[in-house]
Amino acid sequence: MDLTALITAAGGAQPVDLLFENARLVNVFSGEIETRHIAVSGGYVAGFGTYRARERIDLDGRYVVPGFIDAHVHIESAMTAVPEFVRAVLPRGTTTGPGGACPAHCRAHVDATLGCCLPADAWFD
Fold first, then answer.
1. Which residues pair with 93 in a beta bridge?
2. Is the same domain home to 53 and 102?
3. Are 35 and 58 in contact (CB under 8 A)?
4. Do 13 and 57 fall into the same domain?
5. Which residues sit opposite 33 in a β-bridge?
6. Which has fewest Cβ within 10 Å: 20, 24, 73, 121?
């Protein structure tokens, strides 16, 4: 991530890469749904509101929701390898879960060669 470029775009000194317009943003802190424009630069959210942008996409009221954090999950209960588990939950909005907390018996249930303690780049092919 180029933090300087992100800050520059967030401050409006240069155009953002992408502006999602007319999104219904689910505010997970207040429980409200807000109609907002979402500015993205370098793959990161740069801000909310009106920005100059290289590309604009009108979401026409579609919902935007932050990724869900599953703070307590038993991957061994899925009886599948970790990459397959990720392929199942990611499209449904779960983007984060505990890592490395799985005891030895859990690893044996999932996959004796993979285990639960994988580096980030091992989760996907």
1. none
2. no
3. no
4. yes
5. 26
6. 121
Q: Which of 64, 86, 106 is the last residue of a domain?
A: 64
Phi, psi dihedral angles at 55 (to 5 degrees): -140, 145
Instruction: Check: pTM over 0.85? Answer yes or no.
Output: no
Could you tell me the residue range of the domain that residue 106 belongs to?
68-122
Q: Report how far residue 26's alpha carbon sits from residue 47's, in angstroms, rounded to the nearest whole number.
A: 15
CATH of the domain at 38: 2.30.40.10
Q: pLDDT tens-digit profile of 10-24? A: 999 999 999 999 999
Reported as a single tens digit per residue, the pLDDT across 77-119 is 778 888 888 888 888 788 887 765 555 545 444 444 444 444 4
Determine contact, residues 97/79, Cβ cutoff 8 Å.
no
Number of domains in the chain: 2
The pLDDT score that the predictor gives to residue 36 is 96
